[in-house]
């Protein structure tokens, strides 16, 4: 004979009618068609933008974080010196100026004529 369900005392359970997907912004809906790693990098970049706020101007051209994607691939989050966007080397490319060691995304480096210091 099956046992009856126990009634818990305390906080009432959340209603099942809550739609949790409406809370997600339209940006997350756009990320659904991307590979999971690229969507994750986009989310991390957005978090960096929110955390750094106005300090992006002060930190432009610097490397924020390095990550190990696998044994042979390293990932780098940086702020582009020219466009002041938070970038990842696998998404936007990464060029470091030889003399000043400022970091540029691929498009800004191309427009400024900066070449990679690694030869």
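^ Assign residues to that structure.
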């Amino acid at each position: 004979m099956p046992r009856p369900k126990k009634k818990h005392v305390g906080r009432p359970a959340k209603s099942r009618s809550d739609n949790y997907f409406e809370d997600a912004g339209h940006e997350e809906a756009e990320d659904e068609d991307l590979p999971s790693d690229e969507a994750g990098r986009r989310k991390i970049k957005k978090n960096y933008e929110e955390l750094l706020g106005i300090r992006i101007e002060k930190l432009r051209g610097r490397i924020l974080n390095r990550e190990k994607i696998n044994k042979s691939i390293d990932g780098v989050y940086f702020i582009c010196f020219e466009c002041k966007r938070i970038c990842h080397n696998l998404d936007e490319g990464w060029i470091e100026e030889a003399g000043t060691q400022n970091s540029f995304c691929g498009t800004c480096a191309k427009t400024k004529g900066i070449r990679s210091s690694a030869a």
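The first helix runs from residue 26 to 30.
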